[in-house]
Amino acid sequence: MSLMKTKEIMEIIPHRQPFLLIDTIEELEVGVRAVATKCVSYNEPFFAGHFPGEPVMPGVLIVEALAQTGAVAILSQPEFAGKTAYFAAIKEAKFKGKVVPGDVLRLETEIIKVKGPIGVGSAKAYVDGKLVTQAELTFAIGGN
Question: Domains of the chain: which residue ranges?
């Protein structure tokens, strides 16, 4: 059973369709880590052009889904409620496999460092237990 579905996720992060790229939160340690899922459907708008005849989820959107997962972890803290986590850097991004319609992405982001409004997350995405993407994500908390 999922801890959070779309409605609860949207209460924490500001993303909305078509840019909300996580479907559920499966695990959450507030301020520490989150695990999310994304059920990749052939109906995703990006598949119309990436690539016709051979749909592949863009790597940058997998990284964005990982960032949204980390944002749920960090913005679940009371002191960051109602704020936004903005990208500040992406390091060491590696893409090790394709993500295609029908795949279920398991997105894991662990917050490894926070200093004031700046933080760093270690992020990994899996399909069927196989690592498909990994990156170090730096974010800045801003907004209200």
Answer: 6-142
Strands ordered across the beta sheet of 104-115: 24-29, 33-39, 104-115, 118-127, 130-142, 84-95
CATH of region 6-142, choose from 3.30.160.20, 3.20.20.140, 1.10.3720.10, 3.10.129.10 = 3.10.129.10
List 6, 50, 88, 95, catalytic entry: 50
Rounded alpha-carbon distances, angstroms, from residue 66 to 21, 54, 85, 144: 9, 23, 12, 23
For 68-115, what is each residue's pLDDT tens digit?
999 999 999 999 999 999 999 999 999 999 999 999 999 999 999 999
Any catalytic annotation for residue 15? no
